[in-house]
Amino acid sequence: MNHDRLRLDLAALADEVTPVDLRDRALRTSRRLGIQRAVATSAAALVVLAAATGTALAIRPNGQPPAPQPAGPSVTSTWPPVEVTPTPAPSRASTEPSGSPSTSTATPPSVLTGTRYYLEKTSPEARIHAIRGRSDQVVYRIAAPTWGCELNTVTISPDGKRVAWVQDSTDGGITGVLLLGAPGQPSSRTLLSGVTCVDSNALVWKGNDHLMVRQRLRPVLIDVAAGKPVGGDPGQETDRCWSVDGRWLAAKSDGKPYVTDGQTTRTFRYTPPAEEAAKWGGWRARSVSLDGRYVSIGWVGTDPSRRDGSFTVVDTVTSKVIDLPVSGKVESIQFTADFRVLVRQAARIVVLDSGFRKLGEVAEPRDVQKLTLLAYVP
Predict the structure, then answer these.
(1) Is there a contact between 283 and 255 (Cβ–Cβ < 8 Å)?
(2) What average pLDDT score do residues 311-323 get?
(3) What is the pLDDT of residues 324-366, one digit of tens each?
(4) 137 and 130 in contact (C-beta within 8 Å)?
(5) Burial of 289 from C-beta contacts in 10 A (0-12 / 13-18 / 19+)
(6) Of 29, 114, 166, 205, which has the maximum CB count within 10 A?
(7) Are strands 185-196 and 204-206 parallel, antiparallel or unpaired?
(8) Domain ranges of the chain
């Protein structure tokens, strides 16, 4: 009886229940969970933002917008300014793999900042160029026939302030008149007549104010400032060459080379390469270091024509040849007034310090490569 009563009650209850689609329930549950996750994510974002701006927010658990906080003391947070350090552009050295040789030939601007004086040997006019950095100016012009004394004798003083040359006479380019001028000034004046112009180095400067010449085969030292010969016996030395300050002399006496400053005298030896020496009429010093320790050596031609080049350096204390840090043929070597050594090659000048360490190099334009380097003035 009780069992029958239970069944009847369950049947009545079933009739009162509204059928529910389980799929609809699942969808509603899924949407509710998604909304809750979105609210939680938004709340977390607001918390992070509030921390960054120094603002306090209260997040309501039901997903509604944040409610304003009760009034309280105001707190202002001042953040230090952000300092941006600019990143320099990477240099060539920093981008090259370590251990790889650099192919850059750039020269620091300070390696050769003075003025270089060059001789352009043309006819009917010889020109002296003053080159400083990228500037190339013709500072002196001399009338110069092809076969005369002028092209064989034009020279400039070590300080670049005086130009000297022999103007050809009527004896077939053997002697002439010694003239003196100044760069930038077209005028000139006569110093001496009967000056020999046939020699590999017919005019040789002793400092800035004195010039060694030969007058009718006799050596004469001219004071160019005073415009007259210096008194006294100039000696019988040959192949004279002075340091740019006029202190040290390199010369030969009875065929033996030596250097002297008037108090200290050193003889030295040099034996040129036999194969090359056979092509020339000998050798001579072409430049002397400021301390008289080193001389550059150049060939003397078999004819009495001009020679300005040099090819090696000799230590006058040890008589040893200096191993220069250059490769290829050397055109000339000059010791300068600022204790540097200029080694000229076909298309460049390699600059060395007084210990023959390389400081850098200067490229010469094609039209300058054909000129004769006369002097460098720091």
Answers:
(1) no
(2) 98
(3) 999 999 999 999 999 999 999 999 999 999 999 999 999 999 9
(4) yes
(5) buried
(6) 166
(7) unpaired
(8) 145-235
